[in-house]
Design a protein that fits this description.
homodimer; alpha/beta; 434 Repressor (Amino-terminal Domain); Rossmann fold; 14 helices; 12 strands; DNA-binding; transcription cis-regulatory region binding (chains A, B)
DNA sequence: CTGTTAGCGCCTTCAT
DNA sequence: ATGAAGGCGCTAACAG
């Protein structure tokens, strides 16, 4: 049975013209009830109300009842700012999201959604700032507007890291730059993931395995930290297995993909396995192969690194090392909260282990 | 005259022992500098520092300089919670975003992005909550964690409205429900937009104009508030122009769209104008018409209501009444801030006027 | 089990 | 142009 504590007893009127209780009718600010009001109404002391609410001290049943009634009657709600000032914590996490046009909105929303859920479960709320507004991100933590900061879309040699490293509050990066600047990081283990994909292809008979990836960003452009690690994993796995390695950079347009399939697979038969780390090209590849009549699991096997929904939707069901975006989001929040607890433990990096999910593009 | 050493008026507590001097690096909490520290360092009073920072009182150049130096030296940053408590405002806006799978992530991100920008420009930050978590949305405003709340994705007969209407802080809805419950609303004027699209088609020679829309949600499912208004605009415009009206509900799959084109346009030639309020079907329609050999501006003209990028991308450039998502976002923030200023002005609805952009699917 | 009280860091009305 | 002092609403020692 649900005991209503903050229940709303009665509706007033259409316009809620029933201004504050007794005061004088001159109704200005509704001027919400405070803990002092509750104390008076319940005939107890201020601190008793506080302890009743926080449960940090035993309260007699009768007292608690009177307090609860007063709270319901006056529609009391604790004031976040006051609590924050006294506790020195806001129960707010900062989240810097990228607004660059070249990042997939769907992926971002998945991150944001999982981070929101995880934060809410721990009774934290989330303040969003755009990653491009560096000043603002720094400011909300310096001013104590948030207790910790999560930064998405970290790129190689990210220029924000030195500033972030100076902050006195926990900062967690989503990504894994070569130089973390001593900051905590959470990410998928792209290196292990790439190796796993290659091994799975090889274990299923492929021996001429190419890696397909997007063109390296235009010189100087930002490079996501996973690009290097995935590529490294691929070459390491090939080396380990004694295979030749060849990285093919493919622009994300159907023509280029079709050309590749025609030249390198159909005619050349150069590859019997493809490791694809290139989400937009995945669907194009599927269409090109079916149109050109390349038998997929038989002639050439395909394994990708991609979010599960990307791998499954589209024209075919691609076997893949699934990118567990929600897990990354949750781990990130968890790490932020941990660092909020133990300010002392040194920052570390947490890489989520890969799992291979065979689907329709690899042999059984 | 009284020579007061830096008044230790109330610094007795064990906490305020002010051992902040370099002491030893026993380093516990960095314990950020406060305004009192700045005052001491600059040799002025607390209030002087406060006024220097807020600029609400003239400060002599020399004093200001010393204060600025102290601030720089001690790396001072005002504390948001303290300021919020004193000012009774947090400079934080709440934003409830939908997480329903059937809302386009891209559109959401556009809303969120524009709202973030607008808020930041006014020196507000944004707290994100998921619309599904109604309790939480209410709570962040009741506890004064945010100064106002913006709620996206309002549906017809939205069950959240009564609760939102009870709040004592400004609430702004994105959408325009029939019963606003006295809440402020901002939205695109879908009614006028639909009428405009029909008139433009008619003005260009079309006289048998159908409206294409997604199937009405399964009974009981949430219905976005714009569905009714767009449809109403269509029928009103047809009536006004003395045209027959026919609303065609099309599921968002290529087969259905192709069937429609084949049966109703190719064979039947029943329509020479299509008013499309159905984003996912737009691209499908373009492909179907070109594959089936329907001459687009000549045989049948098409005008849509859609975000500009949706209208322009895809297989054809659709003439359309562009949905100005960023403007809606900005207006929403503006309205929230207005209501924060003038708590008295009654809530009202703001509908953004439509503009027709002729592109390739209408005659000149 | 319950009160009393001193802050948390900043703003602002009075004095000067 | 500058100080002094009293909150803002809540928490957490200290006393009983």
């Amino acid at each position: 049975m649900m005991m209503r504590r903050w229940s709303v007893s009665a509706r007033v009127g259409p316009t809620a013209s029933a201004r504050s209780g007794r005061g004088r009718g001159g109704g200005q600010e509704p001027s919400m009830a405070t803990m002092t009001d509750i104390a008076r109404e319940a005939g107890v002391s201020l601190s008793t109300v506080s302890y009743a609410l926080s449960g940090k001290r035993p309260i007699s049943a009768s007292t608690r009842t009177r307090i609860d009634q007063a709270i319901a009657k006056l529609r009391y709600h604790p004031t976040a700012s006051a609590r924050a000032l006294a506790l020195k914590r806001t129960s707010l996490l900062g989240l810097a999201v990228p607004q660059r046009p070249d990042v997939d909105d769907h992926v971002i929303m998945e991150f944001v959604g999982s981070i929101l859920s995880a934060a809410h479960e721990a009774d934290y709320d989330v303040v969003l700032v755009t990653a491009e507004d560096r000043e603002r991100a720094l400011r909300i933590v310096e001013e104590g507007k948030v207790d910790a900061l999560i930064v998405m879309d970290i790129v190689e040699d990210d220029e924000r890291l030195p500033d972030l490293a100076r902050l006195h509050s926990p900062v967690v990066l989503i990504g894994n730059p070569q130089d973390t600047n001593g900051l905590a990081c959470v990410d998928f283990d792209f290196l292990a993931g790439a190796m796993l994909a290659v091994r799975e292809l090889h274990g299923r008979g492929a021996s001429r395995i190419a890696m397909l990836k997007p063109p390296s960003a235009a010189a100087g452009g930002p490079v996501p930290t996973y690009a290097r690690r995935a590529r490294l994993g691929y070459t390491m796995a090939c080396a380990e297995l004694g295979l030749d390695s060849e990285v093919v950079e493919l622009p994300p347009d159907s023509a280029a993909v079709a050309d590749f399939v025609r030249d390198q697979i159909l005619s050349g038969a150069r590859f019997d396995g493809l490791f694809v780390h290139h989400e937009p090209a995945l669907a194009m590849l599927g269409r090109a192969m079916s149109q050109l009549g390349v038998a997929c699991p038989e002639e050439v096997q395909v394994a990708a690194i991609a979010p599960a929904d990307v791998a499954r939707n589209g024209p075919w069901e691609v076997s893949s090392v699934d990118l567990p975006i929600p897990s990354i989001g949750r781990s990130t929040v968890a790490m932020a909260l941990e660092r909020l607890r133990d300010r002392e433990v040194p920052a570390h990096t947490r890489l989520l282990s890969p799992t291979f999910v065979p689907r329709a593009t690899t042999l059984p």
